[in-house]
Amino acid sequence: MISIAIILTLPIREEVYFIDPDKGYVVVHSALHIGRRADVTRFYPQDFDTTNVIYVNTHRKEWHECFSPDSIPGKCLTLRSERFYTILERDVDTLRLKKVDDSTYSFSNEIGSFLVPYERVFAFFLLPRDYETVGYGSDVEGDWIVIDDNMLKFVATNLKRANLQVSIRKKPTEGTPTITKPEIPLPAEIVADTAYQEWIVPLAPRVYFPLGSYTLTAEARRGIRELYRQIDFDKIDKLIIVGHTDSLPFRKGAREPVSSNWELSAMRAAKVARYLIELGAPPEKLVIKGHAYTLPAASNSTPEGRAKNRRVEFYVKLLADEGKSGGEDR
Q1: CATH 3.30.1330.60 region(s) of the chain?
Q2: CATH number of 188-322
Q3: Where in the chain is the domain with CATH 2.60.40?
Q4: In this structure, which topology does domain 12-170 adopt according to CATH?
Q5: If DSSP codes are grouped into helix, strand and coil, which group holds residue 210?
Q6: What pTM does this model have?
Q7: CB–CB of 204/254 below 8 Å?
Q8: pLDDT in tens, 229-285
Q9: Phi, psi of 258 (to 5 degrees)
């Protein structure tokens, strides 16, 4: 009788993120070591621009449509029978880098290969010298190590996938004047967070929409009427109405005559604005924006999470004489 022993060597993943908020991009150096030759597959969002990938030490590669373990449609890059590969990604559309305010940014990225787990994962975050790390976290167990103000390391073992989040900000310069917080002329019960940015105040009420639609439900109209009664438009500069969608690709033939999630998110905000105008809101004080699926409020991997992402949110910009003149809308 002959016994055959099969030794499986799991891959080791290394990621180095060069984050430059001033130029608005993230460059990713990604290396993966495998003891035995094996195919490696990386999952990307469906709208990922494959031309932003530069290949080093790769020989046989293939892009193809695929689904994540959570049945989310996307694109997969499969590298055939490699021991070692390196790729560079430039995220020119800042899909991962989000501006929070004039000095603070949030960065998130999912590391994972849904074929086999990684024996070890190393992720390094490098920032320009005039930036510093102010927060970090992950949805899996791992060790975070602060190496310097502008360098951070994450280490994990036996990892199949993880979502990493890092918050960074520009280092304050000496002599920066202290800004006095203005009084917020809004009922406390509708203010989501008294911490405002550039005199933009987030409100708690949200309006939700059916899948693929920008039609206001009866419940949504009730919520908008209540919000309208709570706001004194004479005491605010602008009411900013921001539309969002889930991450499902927009299907032709859906309920409404729009062709993308960008249009759908903007139409949701516009629908709310039109109803507010019908109620008596001054049109010149309303601003609408659409962010499509780029700022999710919940995970898009479940129907419940996607329902929370099909929403409209509200922000109030205070009057200049309440605190500060000028500045851009959020």
Answers
A1: 188-322
A2: 3.30.1330.60
A3: 12-170
A4: Immunoglobulin-like (2.60.40)
A5: coil
A6: 0.46
A7: no
A8: 999 999 999 999 999 999 888 665 545 567 888 999 999 999 999 999 999 999 999
A9: -125, 160
